[in-house]
Design brief:
The chain has a single domain, classed as Arp2/3 complex 21 kDa subunit ARPC3, CATH 1.10.1760. The protein is an all-alpha fold. The longest helix has 39 residues.
């Protein structure tokens, strides 16, 4: 219950930051995707449940700021599921792991969004170079934020794990 409340609060806080303050932090027109960062880090720590979290976060994002309902829900849900599937195979204690996972995860998310956009007619093949530049910049931007966000997230995760062991 408490975990669900904190994830809901994190959703609202990240949406507010992403739509207001992060507009001033844009580099070359690209700003970090805070919701994707949370989904990827959640998947890295909690496994496949991140698929559900990604779907919910993406759906709320679609309902509030998206043009096509279900687009972000699908892409963020798939990313959460993919990272959650890889979670048992990843060593989470080193700080470079979330940086690399977030870098690659953001790139895969952007590529997946572009492919789905091509299929449904949102994008054209002529926009590939511009979209690739955005994906690369956002991947680097998100990866740079990973060390600042992962430490606190990891600490909370370990505290929950220790409490479960003590029961």
């Amino acid at each position: 219950m408490r975990h669900g409340f904190s994830m809901g609060f994190l959703l609202v806080l990240s949406l507010v930051l992403q739509t207001t303050a992060f507009n001033y932090l844009a580099v070359a027109g690209v700003k970090p995707d805070l919701l994707l960062i949370i989904v990827v880090l959640y998947g890295l720590l909690y496994g496949k449940k991140a698929g559900i979290l990604g779907f919910i976060y993406g759906l709320v994002e679609d309902l509030l700021v998206g043009r096509f309902i279900g687009f972000n829900a699908l892409t963020k849900g798939l990313m959460g599921l993919l990272i959650g599937y890889l979670e048992p195979k990843l060593f989470k204690d080193h700080i470079l792991v979330p940086v690399v996972v977030l870098l690659l995860g953001t790139f895969v998310h952007g590529a997946l969004a572009y492919m789905i956009g091509l299929i449904v007619g949102l994008y054209s093949t002529f926009e590939f170079e511009a979209y690739l530049r955005i994906i690369i910049l956002q991947s680097i931007y998100n990866a740079c934020l990973a060390p600042f966000l992962y430490g606190k997230y990891y600490k909370i995760s370990m505290e929950r794990f220790v409490k479960k062991l003590r029961r």
